[in-house]
Amino acid sequence: xxxxxxxxxxxxxxxxxxxxxxxxxxxxxxxxxxxxxxxxxxxxxxxxxxxxxxxxxxxxxxxxxxxxxxxxxxxxxxxxxxxxxxxxxxxxxxxxxxxxxxxxxxxxxxxxxxxxxxxxxxxxxxxxxxxxxxxxxxxxxxxxxxxxxxx
Length: 151
What we know:
Elements: E1 22-30, E2 37-41, E3 52-53, E4 56-58, H1 65-77, E5 87-95, E6 100-108, E7 122-126, H2 141-150
């Protein structure tokens, strides 16, 4: 029996004329010694301002998600995670109006430095069971449930 590939109509990631571009953003759940997760509030002037999210950012051309997180956490939070173990635990795939977001979520429990907001964002350490109390972008929300169930 010949082996065939999946039905092309089922491939969401396949580029189609008129489809939205795929944006890859890496995110991390920094977990402190008390089991709390760091959330960052998007500052005024940015898309989705006022919503809480996991720290991270867009990948640059040729950059791995892990390298993007090392760079982004240094830039945005003054944290050094170069010697940390980043463990991928989940990902979000969400269609926004102008793009489709693919966001791997990593867990990190070890870093150097103290988280300091460098881009006007507010930071808050939150217990996983309380993350649902914070308004979040649609892509982040399901990740909170997965993270809560894993921790």
